[in-house]
Amino acid sequence: MTTAAARDAAYASASWTVAPEPYDSPVAAALWRAYYTEVSDRWYLLHEGRPTDPAELEREVAAESGADLAPPDGALLVARYGGEPGGTAGVRLLEPGLAELKRVFVREELRGLGGAPVLLAAAEDAARALGAGRIVLDTRTDLVEARALYRRHGYEETEPYTARPYAEHWYGKKLG
């Protein structure tokens, strides 16, 4: 069996699990770096025709520690596929009853295997556990796959609630 065929067979028999992870763990750091590299490169390639400058990547990764995703007002979740870290989603309270969804990401080689909906459901559960009755997020226009995912799972476009760089679309969902 070829390496690709063996990998595909392993993926076919694997399943997703999601659990809380410390925001500063090596697993969280590796997934955050993969996430930031992908979304940053995508933006720079689209707008400037180049990948992210490595020094800029290091500055941005260092500036976004993820500490806002730590208990008691936040949660960072890691999804594993067949036991291997495959994605993340974070939740943090913005105010009592209102949570924000952050850093939803599935590694490219694991996309299409059902991880994003599993992560999204787990993040919504985490938001409810934090006392939220509503969850919001912001995203960019070029992240069309993410925007489609949110719409498929009941998120509706809303008025802006942030003024962050790169935030171009805002979504919200009432948590039942």
UniProtKB/TrEMBL annotation:
Keyword vocabulary terms for this entry: Acyltransferase, Transferase
SUPFAM superfamilies per UniProt: Acyl-CoA N-acyltransferases (Nat) (SSF55729)
Keyword Methyltransferase among UniProt keywords: no
Matches recorded under PROSITE patterns: GNAT (PS51186)
InterPro entries hit by this protein: Acyl_CoA_acyltransferase, Bact_Acetyltransf, GNAT_dom
Coiled coil: none
Keyword Transferase part of the UniProt annotation: yes
Residue ranges constituting the N-acetyltransferase domain according to the UniProt record: 29-176
PANTHER family: AMINOALKYLPHOSPHONATE N-ACETYLTRANSFERASE-RELATED, AMINOALKYLPHOSPHONATE N-ACETYLTRANSFERASE-RELATED-RELATED
Protein name: Acetyltransferase
The species this protein was found in: Streptomyces alfalfae
